[in-house]
Amino acid sequence: MIRRFFVPATFVSSFFFERRGATRSNLDFFGSRRSLGTRNMEHKVPCLCFSSPRVGLTGNLVRKCYRTAVMAVTVVIGAQWGDEGKGKIVDLLAPHFTWIARYQGGANAGHTIVFEGKKFVFHLVPSGILYPDKKCVLGNGMVIDPVQLRKEMDGLAEGGIDFEGRLLISERAHLLLPTHQMLDRAREEDRLVKKIGTTLRGIGPAYSDKFKRCGVPFGEFLDREECVDELLRNHLSQLGISPSPELKEKMDFWKEAARSLAGFVTDTGFPLRRAIERGETILAEGAQGTMLDIDHGTYPYVTSSTTCAFGATAGLGIPARAVTRVIGIFKAYSTRVGEGPFPTELFGEEAQRLREAGGEYGATTGRPRRVGWLDAVALKYAADINGCDGLILTKADVLNNTLFEKTKIGVAYEGLSRLPRKFPPKITVTYRDFPTWPTLRGLEIPPELDSYLAAIEEYSGAPVIALSTGPDRNEIIWRKPFLD
Ligand code: GDP
Ligand code: IMO
Ligand code: MG
Fold this sequence. Notes:
Oligomer: single chain
Shape: globular
Bound molecules: guanosine-5'-diphosphate, 6-O-phosphoryl inosine monophosphate, magnesium ion
Structural class: alpha/beta
Number of helices: 17
């Protein structure tokens, strides 16, 4: 019942703006909200009055719900198969939030940020860390390789990033051992099981141990280091190998890295919940994409975590009702790394041209990404299952008329009314053709691109609130205002 009150609150506000003709200008994400000031608050009151008699809230509860509605936990998710440009968008939105938090996945993620011509690739550290006043959280839903995290933090520290007091690692996040990576590789090389094409970062085995209840939460390691040796023995027996001096050396290094992070390890859920109560804002940064979600993706060709927006509450230890906004990121076309269904995939010369133009090589593994036309069936599914309040399109600059004369949107899978649980080996896609647009200049949206966006809105059922026109932080065109 409470949820019914939040959803209208979001839509009432955007509707409120659109009626004032505020669309189509390059509105700042929050600038317009600030300019609204108290008016923004006013429109919530009728919503509350509307809902309180229906849910019969007591005075105290009303106040608590009201506070929750005013603050915003915004979740940014990938609406395709990962690599949609989530890192860039999180970096762009970060100034407007107090906390930036990763809630799932591990170093399989590769989030790229380009800022003043410099490129940063984040695997574990949240993409908000470049702003010195932001607090960043690695949530309990993550699996953390301490060697990788140490390396990432050391690299950032060399560039002048200070972590003291503003990087928090959940004591409940599970640790990822070198043997998790060996198990991942062994599984991928086993001819008797389906190859997934994983990043070989040990993600599947680390989550398996967590769910088998034999994993090592970070806090547990700090309390009792021997628990890692117990898990290690278990892994060696699975791998059928005996301990070697090289492995011992690797483990010593690993333990040293884990110990060196002890000062950052804490109960992260508690401060996040208190922050929510104080009305502070949290930006939850998803990794991977909806189609890689363990429950709702193209199983078994998925990653091992809940990549969808609802993973944020479990993966950060915050109440479900605290999430007030979900933003889905998608590319103007589609890409996928690894095995699995990809109905709109392109091959041959066309694919190579698109891959080169978009620089479609993995940020984590360097693998060439599979590329294809935009898949509106998958996008609609992502908008639906995540409850996206808005979508942001990236790489609008790539798909221009110097690359292809026409582009396509896959609008239906023949014989299927929606995205299936299991894809048939061959799937026929119905396409709609669109003219591509001239090279983008300034904040103008060419009419061809505008029709492409209108079609995306029609098929996905969600508004495209902004488009990214290049890798840099500043390359963005706000298309629709988007408020609490
Ligand atoms: P993520 O995993 O979703 O954060 O995405 P990745 O960082 O793996 O891949 C996205 C790539 O696209 C990165 O190299 C970004 O710098 C780049 N990128 C993001 N947005 C744009 C855009 O609008 N135009 C172009 N040309 N590149 C972009
Ligand atoms: P970001 O956060 C794209 C894919 C792998 C493989 C499958 C399972 O940068 O968008 P895993 O190593 O997780 O067990 O691999 O998921 N995959 C990604 N593809 N972007 C990612 O992350 C990915 N993380 C995992 O290629 O198909
Ligand atoms: Mg990536």
